[in-house]
């Protein structure tokens, strides 16, 4: 659809089998078959270079053939080619091919040294990143001498604006918004999505243009009114809601709960709903009220999953990492499973988990 975010196509070198086991002609045909489905629209190609070794590296002759077979129709609508974790080999190949490559196509190449940089350009949640690539990235970042790993949760420059909404605490927002218990960004996105997004297939799964999201954040941070109808894309408020949660200085469900959730796999299945209820009821009152408001809405979204394809478990995969994360470092792959199971229960069994505790300032969407 017009204005929709470009399709993301991912190629991971670490998944290539050894050259002697691979018919490179068939590989080229498969690449063309995949791209043929998308070349009429804008698309972005993400190439994970890590894992390309002498044993599975295609020959330069094949690369040259491949490039010449991809005619203009493939190159025209490719918006950007992200080469993630480039090595000297990539730069050498690029120089060999330079005479063959048009200036226009050359400008589409972007080298990305760390996954956090990629997150600045693309919606991270849309990417299927192989575990080997995640581990490699962690090693590279650890090797950055004396530099803290880049973090998306950098708080805004001190002091924040009185109207600041993103990257500041729930308490700060409440104090600056006439003691409103639910932050305005959450109220406005949830209200809009309840009216116009419940029947949208893949709601919360799709991305929106990165620059557009930054513009909307800026409007909110300056205290300006945001009218989501202007953007003609229901995925904009959905991404804004996830971004708001992700940029809180402390996760909505707190650092303390993150540690307890990691223990979740040791809890017997039949006791997990009760354990969820205990963890949620141990939250500070303000966090509990906001969590109840948000999860009541996500439960409502999951009730329409026949149409929107977003079951409680699908929503948990998207929202889990935006509700809890560790105080230090990033979430490892092994940590995702308990987070997703925990979030799935919060959504699926919302009425049981949030049932009996009644804080004085109860707010429901």
From TrEMBL:
Chain spans, region Disordered: 142-161
GO cellular component: cytoplasm
GO molecular function, a single term: GTPase activator activity
SMART domains assigned: RhoGAP, SEC14
InterPro entries, sorted: CRAL-TRIO_dom, CRAL-TRIO_dom_sf, Rho_GTPase_activation_prot, RhoGAP_dom
Domain (CRAL-TRIO): residue spans on this chain: 1-141
Compositional bias per record (Pro residues), positions renumbered to this chain: 147-161
Rho-GAP domain segment(s): 168-354
GO BP annotation list: negative regulation of endocytic recycling; small GTPase-mediated signal transduction
CDD domains linked: SEC14
Protein name: Rho GTPase activating protein 8
Biological source species: Sander lucioperca (Pike-perch)
């Amino acid at each position: 659809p017009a204005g929709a975010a470009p399709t993301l196509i991912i190629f991971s070198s670490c998944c290539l089998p050894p050259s002697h086991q691979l018919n490179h002609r068939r590989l080229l045909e498969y690449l063309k078959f995949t791209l043929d489905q998308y070349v009429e629209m804008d698309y972005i190609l993400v190439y994970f270079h890590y894992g390309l070794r002498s044993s599975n590296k295609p020959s330069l002759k094949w690369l040259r053939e491949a490039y010449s077979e991809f005619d203009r129709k493939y190159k025209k609508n490719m918006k950007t080619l992200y080469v993630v974790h480039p090595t000297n080999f990539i730069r050498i190949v690029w120089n060999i091919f330079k005479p063959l490559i048009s200036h226009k196509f050359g400008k589409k190449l972007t080298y990305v040294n760390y996954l956090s940089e990629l997150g600045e350009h693309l919606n991270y949640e849309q990417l299927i990143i192989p575990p080997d690539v995640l581990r490699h990235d962690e090693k590279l970042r650890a090797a950055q001498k004396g530099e803290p790993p880049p973090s998306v949760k950098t708080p805004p420059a001190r002091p924040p604006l009185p109207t600041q909404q993103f990257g500041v605490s729930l308490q700060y927002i409440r104090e600056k918004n006439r003691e409103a218990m639910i932050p305005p960004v959450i109220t406005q996105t949830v209200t809009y999505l309840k009216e116009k997004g419940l029947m949208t297939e893949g709601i919360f799964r799709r991305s929106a243009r990165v620059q557009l999201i930054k513009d909307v954040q800026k409007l909110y941070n300056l205290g300006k009114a945001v009218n989501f109808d202007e953007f003609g894309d229901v995925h904009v408020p959905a991404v804004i809601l996830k971004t708001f949660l992700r940029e809180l200085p402390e996760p909505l469900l707190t650092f303390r709960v993150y540690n307890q959730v990691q223990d979740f796999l040791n809890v017997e299945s039949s006791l997990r709903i009760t354990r969820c209820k205990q963890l949620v009821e141990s939250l500070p009152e303000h966090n509990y009220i906001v969590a109840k408001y948000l999860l009541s809405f996500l439960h409502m979204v999951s009730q329409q999953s026949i149409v929107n394809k977003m079951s409680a478990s699908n929503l948990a995969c998207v929202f889990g990492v935006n509700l809890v994360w560790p105080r230090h470092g990033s979430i490892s792959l092994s940590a995702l499973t308990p987070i997703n199971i925990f979030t799935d229960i919060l959504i699926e069994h919302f009425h049981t988990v949030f049932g009996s505790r009644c804080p004085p300032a109860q707010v429901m969407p």
